[in-house]
Amino acid sequence: MGEQFGKTGFFFNENAQWEYAGEGVTRSVMSYDNDMMLVVVKFKKGAVGSLHKHPHKQFSYVIKGSFEVNMNGEKRIQKVGDGYLMPPNVEHGVVALEESALVDVFVPHREDFLKH
């Protein structure tokens, strides 16, 4: 087994470090290791998570508000308690219909989300 790295063990919301992730969007990398990453993303009403794709599997779970989710051209409205599991390299994005938040899990971790 390879060497583990990252922000593992207990984590607490009060210690979250938020960073700009686009107009009206902030995110906090809560925990990660070689294999996975947990991120909380907050959106102001109308904020857009632009269409994009990446080589990671992604599970997203709505914890506040509601979104129009676009996955590979298919649009659905999702609200608290809803989510999606997305394979690698599928184009996706969201629009916050109100003040909203998601929990994202990436497999493996997103190197581009880490500050060096």
Task: Explain what this protein looks like in three dimensions.
- The protein has 116 residues and is an all-beta fold.
- The protein has strands spanning 19-20, 25-32, 37-43, 48-52, 57-64, 66-71, 74-79, 83-86, 92-96, 100-107.
- Helices cover 0% and strands 51% of the residues.
- It has one domain (17-113): Jelly Rolls.
- The strands form 2 sheets. A 6-stranded antiparallel beta sheet has the order 1-2-3-10-5-8, with no helix packed on it. The protein has a 4-stranded antiparallel beta sheet with strand order 4-9-6-7, with no helix packed on it.
- The two termini are 24 Å apart.
How would you summarize the topology of this molecule?
Blueprint lengths: L18 E2 L4 E8 L4 E7 L4 E5 L4 E8 L1 E6 L2 E6 L3 E4 L5 E5 L3 E8 L9
Antiparallel strand pairs: 1-2, 2-3, 3-10, 4-9, 5-8, 5-10, 6-7, 6-9
Q: Quick summary of this structure?
A:
The chain is mainly beta. The protein is built from no helices and ten strands.
The total beta strand count reads: 10
SSE ordering? EEEEEEEEEE
Largest sheet: 6 strands, antiparallel
Going by CATH, the architecture would be Sandwich
Percent helix range: under 10%
By CATH, the superfamily comes out as: Jelly Rolls
Given the structure, what is the number of helices? 0
Identify low-pLDDT runs.
Answer: none
Cα distance spanning the termini:
24 Å
Going across the biggest sheet, name each strand in turn.
Answer: 1-2-3-10-5-8
Strand content: over 45%
Briefly, what CATH class? Mainly Beta
User: Structural class given helices, strands, pairing?
Assistant: mainly beta
CATH topology call? Jelly Rolls
Shape: globular
Q: Rg from C-alpha positions?
A: 14 Å
What is the count of structural domains? 1
Mean pLDDT: 93
